[in-house]
Design a protein that fits this description.
Helix content: 55-70%
Bound molecules: guanosine-5'-triphosphate, magnesium ion
Number of strands: 5
Distance between the termini: 33 Å
CATH class of the largest domain: Alpha Beta
Largest sheet: 5 strands, parallel
Number of domains: 2
CATH superfamily of the largest domain: P-loop containing nucleotide triphosphate hydrolases
Order of helices and strands: HEHEHEHEHEHH
Length: 200
């Protein structure tokens, strides 16, 4: 089946599972609460199209890998006043990419932008995340909700199209696939008949 159609069916059935990971106390729950209210305002429904799961899991690498396998998108959070939480995010990126490959959406979120940090630190963090790891990087303040909407927008960029009706390209792909399947099965039927009647 065409890949985009498969993704659509999976998402319409199961929703988009977004895993929010990071060190303890970096603001994961506050970010999720902000995202849920933005998403329910945007979609005008309380439905669970986007399902957020939160985990710290610093000490349970096997469980972390198991949970990573079930998610569709990742929000990896650190706090700008906690250097260890940034280092942990880089470990998480490696874990996510090892399990899900490089095409899974990974959004790295620098939270607590209201706290003190330097411009050098911000630039280095941005280069590491966007250039070395090729992930999206957002600077937010979950306490005030500042810039959380850009994370929501990015989630919609990736998965919004699967919540709408199929595009004409997807429909064409499906028809082409049905035709191909029919051609294959009619060939198989012809061969079976020929074999049955010993026709060469
Ligand atoms: N200054 C500041 N504090 C924040 C911000 N976001 C969250 N906090 C505070 O950080 C603390 C932890 O926030 P949570 O959202 O519970 O963090 P968490 O990562 O879910 O924490 P655990 O689940 O316990 O690991 C709370 O006291 C929040 O008020 C922020 O943008 N700025
Ligand atoms: Mg929490």
């Amino acid at each position: 089946m065409a890949t985009s159609l498969k993704i659509r069916q999976h998402i319409q059935k199961n929703g988009v599972k977004v895993m929010v990971l990071g060190h303890e106390q970096v603001g994961k729950t506050t970010i999720i609460n902000n995202l849920c209210s933005i998403i329910s305002d945007t979609l005008q429904s309380e439905g669970d199209t986007f399902k957020f799961m939160e985990a710290s899991l610093s000490d349970m690498p096997n469980l972390r890998k198991l949970m990573i396998g079930t998610a569709n998108a990742f929000i990896l959070t650190y706090a700008v006043d906690d250097d260890a939480s940034f280092d942990y995010v880089t470990t998480l990126i490696n874990d996510v990419q090892a399990v899900k490959g490089k095409n899974t959406p990974v959004f790295v979120v620098a939270n607590k932008m209201d706290k003190e940090t330097t411009i050098q630190k911000r630039i280095i963090a941005d280069c590491v995340i966007t250039i070395d790891y090729e992930c999206d990087h957002f600077e937010v303040c979950a306490n005030t909700g500042k810039n959380i909407d850009s994370i929501a927008k990015k989630l919609f960029d990736y998965y919004g199209k699967y919540l709408l009706f199929p595009t004409s390209i997807e429909e064409e792909e499906t028809y082409a696939e049905i035709e191909e399947t029919m051609t294959k099965s009619s060939k198989k039927l012809r061969t079976t008949i020929r074999e049955f009647f010993c026709i060469r």
